[in-house]
């Protein structure tokens, strides 16, 4: 059991990791074929995983409805929505558009239900940015003051009437405010981002090597 | 309570400019938006560009205005457009945008735009990175047929196209991963293709690094960028209307930060 | 006299070599640069004498100079006094190449395309990786013998307190692994592997305190892995009877369907502690702000650069980029894992030093000759091929 749960996965990880790492250094057709096969194998595993995931959702929610748990109505809605979407997809042969270019059943559900729902959820971000700005942005010291001032320049520098106002004050030949905004984004902001990015990339290499060598076994849980 | 009041304020500030369509000043294009516009202006007439629709319904409001204006701009410049998607949620959105813009263009200019000759949509292929790598070798191994099931190599627009290298410009309407970064890593650097993108406000600052290195010739960032780009193209659509709402929204955020510091000290 | 003139025209130095480090689908034709402007055409023929490709260009076109070939200096002699034209061939084998100058045949040469086993273009990359490997093994060995100093990470030190608070309040701890599926994206999967390690430690602490744990998933594959990790953590804490299979649950592979479900859970369950470790997208702020509105302590760690500002604004503690990879080791205090943090730090120093040296040297060269700086061989060492 220990062999199947720990030693075998570690062996597969080591051999697989080493093999795919070596294919990177080998330009042969076999290498690129192996990488393609690896990618296809993952797609197949992922598809099977998704199938079981959906099965899990159905079983879990049917169980809730059967037991009459608190909020079982939501589970019922989920089951009905899943069934209707599945049947529509079946009747539309999985195509979103008919041969005449019209929306099929599944296409209609996608366009007029899925799209607005997704857009609504995404738009919440705008509201939460505002509440986070009010709640969390505290100017406690000179560093946070610098951050606030920089952010203000970037935000205001992109507002049309602020630009007009700036031109009135600074004169028509002054460097446009948008140039300052670009400078901030492409210099101070970029320096910090690149530094973090380099750190992240090095971290990735270390984690990868540790995992392949079996030094880090935490992804298997501990013994 | 304060939170709900803030939400209400945001809603008012965003809805009013869109509903009453008032303007709060002339939109000034940022250097990255100008770069995007110039990259399209630079392509010789009659050439063919590749456009990838890599977004989902959630990011549609931010990217769609630029996508529409770009297709319009390309058609006006007499450039042929080959479209594709790396996101499974994109095809319906792409077909809707391409269909309506081409029809509108025909109506306004009286010029006939033919599918397969002036534009085509190849559809979605799963595989992300491997699709891009495959396109670098040959378009036809990845897309034997287009979105409508027609043989890709029989489309007149594909006559001189074999692989990614045959496109002078690649445009990505990308909301995340796979998106602009993926194209840069896997294709545009390798094959030396000019590359521009339209993206969401969340990832826009991250992609600025590619502007400074020249890996991105230009970028339109979200609704604001769309408004700037529409002004450059000379059309007045969703982007322009959105700029005013977003500008006021951002002004509100600055006010909220100040208020937060005064009231919650 | 005519014969002598023709001899002058002949390109005796014309030769064809295998394209280095490829899969046997290219050869390169090389010959000396001609000072007199002319039009070149290079044609390639297979063993049966059939033409399989040609390249035409003007002698003034710098794209066909050997110096413009995209190969590092240790693989190919990038001599700016030579032309180098790469020609595609269908597969390995012998090919005949003809060179015409102003439509007159001036040289022919035979060449062979060979499939190379080792890609020596990537030698720079291999050396760095081997360097990593040696250091990792060395520090793992050192860490066994003496304790390594690791600086404090406030976010992780607060974990104990955050879980303790959840216990006192009798509310659950929510642990989220981000939006990626294992293997979905090679790079983003790394943060997921790191997150698995942190989950093991969090689950161990949660089990010790007998606090409820919720681990929602957008990927069934992640869920299966995390079920095993959580189960083992509970067993390790001596509380296997408290483990619930349902503490790991699948929500939806769709980003915003997942978010809406999580918002519902936040509002109904009002968790005391929310932990976000992994690669997140736009949902980060929506999740974090909703959790803040129900009064949860929040600890986040992500290597998604574009989401860091949102987590900074909305969470109590945020691990920046690579701190996420160090978190598992930091919490477990295992010597073999702690050593990797040290290695990471040393590599950072080495990379910074390399960037500094290269930037200063190139800048010095650029002051006197900007073109020389662009063509400097040293730059090849830093480039990916």
Quickly describe the structure.
Chain B has 265 residues and is of the alpha/beta class.
Description:
The complex is a heterotrimer of chains A (223), B (265) and C (385). Chain A has helices at residues 2-24, 29-67, 72-91, 105-136, 142-156, 160-170, 177-186, 188-213. Chain A is mostly helical and 223 residues long. In chain A, helix 3 (72-91) crosses helix 4, helix 5 packs across helix 7 (177-186) and helix 7 runs parallel beside helix 8. Chain B has 265 residues and is of the alpha/beta class. Helices cover 52% and strands 13% of the residues of chain B. In chain B, strands 3-2-1-4-5-6 form a six-stranded parallel β-sheet, sandwiched between helices. The relative contact order of chain B is 0.18. By secondary structure, chain C is of the alpha/beta class. The model of chain C has no long low-confidence stretch (mean pLDDT 88). Chain C has twelve helices and 13 strands. In chain C, 45% of the residues lie in helices and 22% in strands. In chain C, strand 1 and strand 2 (26-32) form a beta hairpin.
Number of strands of chain C: 13
Task: Please trace the helix and strand order of chain B, writing H or E for each element.
Answer: HHEHEHEHHEHEHEHH
CATH architecture of the largest domain in chain C: 3-Layer(aba) Sandwich
Structural class of chain C: alpha/beta
Strand content of chain B: 5-15%
Strand elements of chain B, count? 6
CATH fold-level name of the largest domain in chain C: Rossmann fold
> In the residues of chain B, how many domains can be counted?
1
Q: Give the radius of gyration of chain B.
A: 20 Å
Helicity range of the residues of chain B? Answer: 40-55%
Number of alpha- plus pi-helical segments of chain C? 12
- How many helical elements of chain B? 10
Helical residue percent of chain C? 40-55%
Major pleated sheet of chain B: 6 strands, parallel
Give the CA-CA distance, first to last residue of chain C. Answer: 49 Å
Multimeric state: heterotrimer
Strand content of chain C: 15-25%
- CATH class designation of chain B: Alpha Beta
Query: How many separate domains of chain C?
Result: 2
Greatest chain-chain interface? A-C, 58 and 80 residues
Q: Name the CATH class of the largest domain in chain C.
A: Alpha Beta
């Amino acid at each position: 059991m220990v062999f199947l749960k720990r030693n075998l996965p570690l062996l597969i990880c080591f051999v697989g990791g080493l093999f795919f790492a070596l294919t990177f250094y080998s330009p042969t057709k076999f290498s690129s074929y192996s990488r393609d096969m690896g990618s296809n194998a993952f797609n197949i595993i992922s598809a099977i995983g998704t199938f079981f995931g959906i099965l899990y959702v159905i079983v879990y929610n049917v169980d809730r409805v059967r037991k009459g748990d608190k909020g079982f109505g939501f589970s019922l809605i989920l089951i009905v929505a899943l069934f209707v979407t599945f049947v529509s997809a079946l009747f539309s042969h999985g195509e979103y558009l008919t041969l005449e270019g019209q929306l099929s059943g599944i296409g209609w559900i996608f366009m007029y239900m899925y799209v607005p729902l997704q857009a609504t959820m995404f738009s919440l971000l705008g509201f939460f940015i505002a509440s986070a700005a009010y709640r969390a942005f505290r100017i406690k010291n000179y560093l946070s003051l610098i951050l606030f001032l920089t952010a203000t320049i970037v935000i205001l520098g992109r507002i049309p009437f602020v630009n007009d106002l700036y031109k009135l004050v600074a004169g028509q030949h002054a460097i446009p405010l948008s140039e300052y905004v670009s400078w901030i984004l492409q210099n101070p902001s970029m320096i910090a981002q690149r530094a973090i990015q380099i750190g992240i990339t090095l971290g990735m290499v270390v984690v990868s090597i540790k995992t392949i060598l079996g030094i880090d076994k935490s992804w298997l849980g501990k013994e | 309570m304060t939170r709900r009041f803030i939400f209400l304020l945001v809603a008012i500030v965003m809805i009013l400019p869109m509903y009453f369509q008032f303007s709060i000043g002339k939109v000034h294009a940022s250097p990255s938006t100008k770069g995007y516009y110039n990259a399209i202006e630079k392509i010789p007439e009659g050439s063919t560009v590749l456009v990838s629709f890599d977004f989902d319904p959630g990011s549609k409001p931010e990217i769609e205005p630029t996508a529409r204006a770009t297709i319009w701009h390309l058609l006006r410049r007499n450039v042929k457009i080959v479209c594709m998607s790396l996101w499974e949620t994109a095809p319906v959105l792409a077909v809707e945008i391409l269909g309506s813009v081409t029809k509108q263009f025909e109506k306004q200019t009286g010029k006939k735009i033919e599918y397969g000759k002036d534009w085509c949509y190849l559809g979605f292929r799963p595989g992300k990175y491997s699709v891009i790598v495959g396109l670098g070798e040959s378009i036809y191994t990845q897309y034997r047929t287009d979105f409508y099931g027609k043989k890709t190599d029989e489309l007149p627009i594909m006559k001189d196209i074999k692989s990614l290298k045959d496109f002078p410009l690649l445009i990505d309407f990308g909301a995340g991963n796979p998106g602009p970064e993926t194209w840069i890593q896997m294709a545009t650097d390798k094959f030396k293709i000019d590359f521009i993108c339209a993206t969401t406000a969340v990832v826009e600052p991250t992609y600025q690094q590619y502007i400074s290195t020249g890996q991105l010739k230009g970028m339109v960032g979200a609704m604001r960028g769309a408004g700037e780009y529409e002004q450059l193209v000379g059309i007045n659509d969703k982007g322009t209307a959105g700029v005013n709402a977003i500008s006021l929204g951002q002004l509100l955020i600055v006010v909220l930060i100040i208020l937060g510091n005064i009231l919650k000290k | 006299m005519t014969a002598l003139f023709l001899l002058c025209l002949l390109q005796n130095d014309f030769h064809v070599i295998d394209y280095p480090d490829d899969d046997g689908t290219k050869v390169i034709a090389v010959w000396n640069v001609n000072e007199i402007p002319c039009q070149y055409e290079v044609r390639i023929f297979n063993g049966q004498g059939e033409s399989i490709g040609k390249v035409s260009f003007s002698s003034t076109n710098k794209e066909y100079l050997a110096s413009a070939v995209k190969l590092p200096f240790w693989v190919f002699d990038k001599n700016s006094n030579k032309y180098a034209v790469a020609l595609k061939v269908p597969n390995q084998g012998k090919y005949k190449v003809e060179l015409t100058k102003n439509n007159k045949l001036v040289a022919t040469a035979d060449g062979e395309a060979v499939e190379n086993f080792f890609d020596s273009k990537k030698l720079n990359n291999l050396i760095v990786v081997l360097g990593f490997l040696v250091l990792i093994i060395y520090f793992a060995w050192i860490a066994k013998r003496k304790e390594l100093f690791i600086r404090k990470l406030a976010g992780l030190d607060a974990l104990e307190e955050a879980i303790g608070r959840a216990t006192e309040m009798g509310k659950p701890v929510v642990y989220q692994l981000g939006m990626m599926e294992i293997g979905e994206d090679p790079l983003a999967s790394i943060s997921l592997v790191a997150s698995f390690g942190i989950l093991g430690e969090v689950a161990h602490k949660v089990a010790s305190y007998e606090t409820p744990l919720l681990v929602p998933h957008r990927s069934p594959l992640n869920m299966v892995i995390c079920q095993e990790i959580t189960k083992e953590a509970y067993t390790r804490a001596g509380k296997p009877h408290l483990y619930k299979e349902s503490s790991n649950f699948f929500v939806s592979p769709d980003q915003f369907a997942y978010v809406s479900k999580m918002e519902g859970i936040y509002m109904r369950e009002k968790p005391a502690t929310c932990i976000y470790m992994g690669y997140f997208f736009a949902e980060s702020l929506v999740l974090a702000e909703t959790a803040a509105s129900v009064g949860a302590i929040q600890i986040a760690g992500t290597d998604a650069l574009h989401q860091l500002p949102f987590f900074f604004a909305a969470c109590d503690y945020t691990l920046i980029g690579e701190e996420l990879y160090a978190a598992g080791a930091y919490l477990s205090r295992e010597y073999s894992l702690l050593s990797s943090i040290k290695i990471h730090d040393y590599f950072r120093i080495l990379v910074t030093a390399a960037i500094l040296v290269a930037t200063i040297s190139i800048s010095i060269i650029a002051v006197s000759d900007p073109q020389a700086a662009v063509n400097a061989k040293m730059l090849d060492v830093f480039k990916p091929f």
